[in-house]
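Following up on my earlier thread - several people asked me to post the actual chain instead of describing it. Fair enough. Here it is, all 186 residues.
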Amino acid sequence: MARYSATPANEAKSARCRGGDLRVHFKNTVEAANAIKGRKLLNAVTYLKDVQQHKQCVPFRRFHRGIGRTAQAKAFKATLGRWPEKSAKYLLDLLQNVQANAEAKGLNTEELVIKHIHVNAARKNRRRTYRAHGRINAYMSNPSHIEIIVSEEDKIVEKAEDERQTVVFQNRKQLAAKRLRAAGNQ
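Reply from S.P.:
Thanks for posting it. Predicted structure:
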């Protein structure tokens, strides 16, 4: 069994999946993962499909050197954004996997929320490119490890009205000051 970087609060109401050494750019995948963190599972799926069709962008906040501006980023209170299609494809595959794992556990897929999504840089793959004057340079790829944990959202129950009076706890010093004030008013 593989180790995850986080454990869910309630294992019975959670599902998880992971992908290792995926041939997809690390930096783009980090930004796409941050864009879907905290969303409902089905909402994240529709969002990533929109990214593939260039209907919505992924805001780039951390790895944003040389990233162009787009008006679609205004929805996320940002200016820089792109449409990392390959990252969206791999994340969609993993979301489909975690959804199947949740259904196998008997969880309600409409209530699932992405509680944890983590992207690590995997070991670089080496290739080489040929340069002028007979030189050779490295031509590396930057693959990723991705892990996702989804959990059913707990129902929020309103607190019942309490008809008892609230008791204020006071220390000795506060009680003495209260007695002095009461004695001074008489």
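The helical segments are 26-36, 41-52, 85-105, 172-185. That should answer part of your original question.
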